[in-house]
Amino acid sequence: MVATAAIPQISPADVQTLSSQGYVVVPNFLPRQMVDELRQDIRALRSSSAFKQAKIGQDSTNELNTNIRIAETCFLGRNRPELTSIASAGGSNSVRDRANGLYDILDGLCDSLSELSQRDTQTRLDKSLSELLYAYYPTGGYYRRHRDAIPNSASVLRRYSLLLYLNEEGWSAEKDAGQLRIHLDGGGDECPPGVAPNFVDVDPLGGTLVLFKSEMVPHEVLNTNSERFALVGWYNRPVGAGDIGNLGEAGGGGDIVRVGMMVVAMALVTFGVANIVGQ
Questions:
Q1: Is residue 92 classed exposed, middle or buried when 0-12, 13-18 and 19+ CB atoms within 10 A define those classes?
Q2: pLDDT, the chain, mean
Q3: What is the pLDDT of residues 158-206, one digit of tens each?
Q4: Which residues contact 152 (CB under 8 A, 6 or more apart)?
Q5: How many of the other CB atoms lie within 10 Å of CB of 2?
Q6: How sure is the predictor about 239, in pLDDT bands with cuts at 50, 70 and 90?
Q7: What is the end-to-end Cα distance of the chain in Å, rounded?
């Protein structure tokens, strides 16, 4: 890891691993003090009822399903009045908002990945469409195998997924569990028939950063034996005319559908994909 002006950054080697392997794990990306501050931020926001029970599904199919996911989430972003108004979480000078705070760090990470996106796909990332949220898993929480970018849905804009773990020091894989399982069997939401399971488990140690290509890496959160704290996000490419057409065709075609999908595209720019797909 390389640090400049106290802002953590991923190294060129990490970027290359993400490009070639599809995912990368960066231990100790955040210093312990900031991990502890962010975890306390989650506690303060939960105490102020800023978290909601997490749902699953894309677009109109978004619903609560505790057979697939048990977790709580809180959407983040600069200058969100529902967050900056919470004095117990630092108000407008929170660990998220302050100079060299969480948002500055994640913006710098987006810049690094945007260069990779330009190199690999000839399209830079659109920082205004970045999605960020806190994810809190209670004891007994989980999130079954899924993908972050689904064809013919608004989530198709997602290019890179990020996980930043905020758990307490001394997290134990045996005692606390809740590992991230990255599936490498070539399947989607399920392992392909006749293919042997192939996966990598990542311990959610505080300060660890995980990045992966949203459309190609199925993953899951294994059952937790303790509270689990994380920041989750997606860096997205710009909305294109082709996206609106594809969404319209997926909905059955017709002018009404296409107009509706155009409204969705406009909403993406204003609110972010996460508010529409419910991740």
A1: middle
A2: 87
A3: 999 999 999 999 999 899 999 999 999 999 999 999 999 999 999 999 9
A4: 246, 247, 249, 250
A5: 12
A6: confident
A7: 29
Q: How far is CA 63 from CA 36, 50, 54, 56, in A?
A: 32, 19, 9, 6
pLDDT tens digits, 58-88: 555 567 788 999 999 999 999 899 999 999 9
* Token pair of 192 as six digits: 């392909």
The conformational region for residue 82 under phi > 0 = left, psi -120 to 50 = alpha, else beta, is alpha
CA pair distance 257, 38, nearest whole angstrom:
41
> How big is the chain, counted in residues?
279
Residue 56 pLDDT level (bands cut at 50, 70, 90)? confident
Report how far residue 136's alpha carbon sits from residue 156's, in angstroms, rounded to the nearest whole number.
Answer: 25
Task: Write down the residue that tokens 């705070």 correspond to.
Answer: 101
| Cβ–Cβ under 8 Å, residues 95 and 41 | yes
Cβ-based neighbours of 73, under 8 Å, separated by 6 or more:
51, 52, 54, 133, 134, 135, 136, 232, 279
Calpha distance 152→138 (Å, rounded): 32
- CA-based nearest residue to 102, from 192, 185, 194, 39: 39
**Any idea which residue has 């890179």 for tokens?**
160
- Strands (E) across the chain are located at 2-4, 7-9, 23-26, 52-53, 69-70, 72-76, 131-137, 142-146, 158-165, 180-183, 199-202, 209-213, 219-221, 228-236
Report the candidate in 134, 133, 113 with the shortest Cα–Cα distance to residue 124: 113
Q: Where are the beta strands (DSSP E) in 31-96?
A: 52-53, 69-70, 72-76
